[in-house]
Amino acid sequence: MADRAELLLELKQTVSQCIEEAKAKLHTLSKDIWSCPELAYEESRSHDTLVAFFSQEEGWKVDSHFKLHTAFRATWGAGVSEQVNVGFLCEYDALPEIGHACGHNLIAEVGAAAALGLKAVLENTHGKLPVQVYVTVLGTPAEEDGGGKIDMLSEGAFEGLDVVFMAHPSKEDAMYLPCVAEHDVTIKYHGKASHASAYPWEGINALDAAVLCYNNLSVLRQQMKPDWRVHGIIKHGGVKPNIIPAYAELEYYLRTPSRAELHVLKAKAEMCFRSAAVATGCEFARNKYDNMLRNAVLEKLYETNGKALGMDFTTDEDVLKNESGSTDFGNVTFAVPGIHPYFYIGSNALNHTEEYTVAAGDDRAQFFTLRTAKALAMTALDVLLNPELLQRVKQEFTEAKLKEDRTLTGEHTELSDKH
Ligand SMILES: NCCCC(=O)N[C@@H](CCCN)C(=O)O
Question: What is the DSSP pairing of strand 181-190 with strand 247-256?
């Protein structure tokens, strides 16, 4: 046991050192992505930058345009049977008009750095590990809009992975932040144009329908559970004041803490869409984001490694219980045990702001980004050196998934009965 502890400490020190030695090229990688923000499913340049990065590294097998045009896979390992397959994810899509305001360039850097660090260590363990290891990096586009991981899950991209890691920039270090189920919906109203002054009575005003829809959803909030969210915009409301709008379009996000409740909120919201106008079209997005299936074993390991590296995990109950967004990594956690911690990047700016875009491209973010990569790679080493630990991770995943599935069927039935 002491030998394993000593080996683990030695390997963790080596992983840190290897990531430090690669920091210049990792920073260049991140900055290249940050300086050319691309929207969901359109991340061609970022895809090419990451594919080139791994292609120039020795020993990686790189599959460009993997399952999705802007997704990729890079793998390293013997490819023998009875191996443990560790996955690291890279996100790299930006937001409209404000660029990398969620720091996805840093997510890509963390994934690449952790994979490089782990691979460098594994190359030199010379059979000291109890298992053979395969390292898989998946470039997963379109997290902010559409859910590239969900498309890739349905294409089998995550099959064979034993554990998966990524980390998300935030304004604090956290092993986990609430992550809720979410579904995008676009609501379209079609009317009939007419001169708004000469003969408005000949028109059918699609914008009126959109306004009524907006107001219906606003009053729906009174009957929503306090932890449900409905928020959206009017994307198209007409072209000129003197033309009765023949077309109007809204985009909304519907959110509930669990997958089971989402269908109830969707049904309520859809009644708001339809009651705003007789003839309406509403299209739910192809992909529905799941809430996160947590893994306490992995979170604890990450916390221990993060604290050893100087992370100051938030204990702010308001943040830990209330702040929440959604991520397609939630869907991944129902297929593979994994963690999606958050990391401070040297700024108190809030995600999805122009200030955060600046912070994500600032050199000051690099220390915190590389520290996070080290903590992830060390957490991977924890489970690789201790097969019993990996079994506990998988056992917890199986039990949590079973419990969620029961909730999904049970709550679905119960909630359906009520509505
Ligand atoms: N917890 C990470 C949040 C990342 C994020 O902002 N995701 C978007 C996803 C929107 C999908 N339609 C969000 O608004 O939560």
Answer: antiparallel
Q: Tell me, what's the ipTM?
A: 0.93
Helices (H), 42-147: 44-55, 104-122
Q: Is the residue at 413 inside a domain?
A: no
- For the stretch 246-282, what's the b/e string if a residue is b when 16 or more beta carbons lie within 10 angstroms of its beta carbon? bbbbbbbbbbbbbbbbbbbbbebbbebbeebbeebeb
264 within some domain: yes
Residue 403: both structure tokens together: 């419990």
Same domain, residue pair 212 and 142:
no
Collect all residues with Cβ–Cβ distance below 8 Å to 355 and sequence separation of at least 6: 347, 349
Per-residue pLDDT of 158-214, as tens digits, reads 999 999 999 999 999 999 999 999 999 999 999 999 999 999 999 999 999 999 999
- pLDDT reading at 408 higher than 90: no
* b/e sequence 85-114, b meaning 16+ C-beta within 10 Å: bbbbbbbbbbbeeebbbbbbbbbbbbbbbb
Q: Would you report the helix, strand and coil content of the chain in percent, each value rounded to 5?
A: 45, 20, 35
Q: Is 273 in the pocket of ligand 1 (CB under 6 A)?
A: no
CATH code: domain of residue 246: 3.30.70.360
- Residues 175, 27, single domain; the answer is yes
pLDDT tens digits for 313-356? 999 998 898 877 999 999 999 999 999 999 999 999 999 999 99
| Residues facing residue 165 across a β-bridge | 88, 339
Q: How much distance in Å is there from the Cα of 187 to the middle of ligand 1? A: 20
Ligand 1 center from residue 259 Cα (angstroms): 15
The preferred substitution site among 143, 151, 288, 340 for testing ligand 1, maximizing ligand atoms within 8 Å of CB, is: 143
Distance from Cα 140 to the centre of ligand 1, integer Å: 14
pTM listed for this prediction = 0.91
| Domain extent for 87 | 1-179+290-406
Same-domain status, 14 and 67: yes
Please measure the distance between the N-terminal and C-terminal CA atoms of the chain and give it in whole angstroms: 57
Number of domains in the chain: 2
* Residue 289 near ligand 1, beta carbon < 6 Å: yes
> Which residue lies with its CA nearest to atom 8 of ligand 1?
144
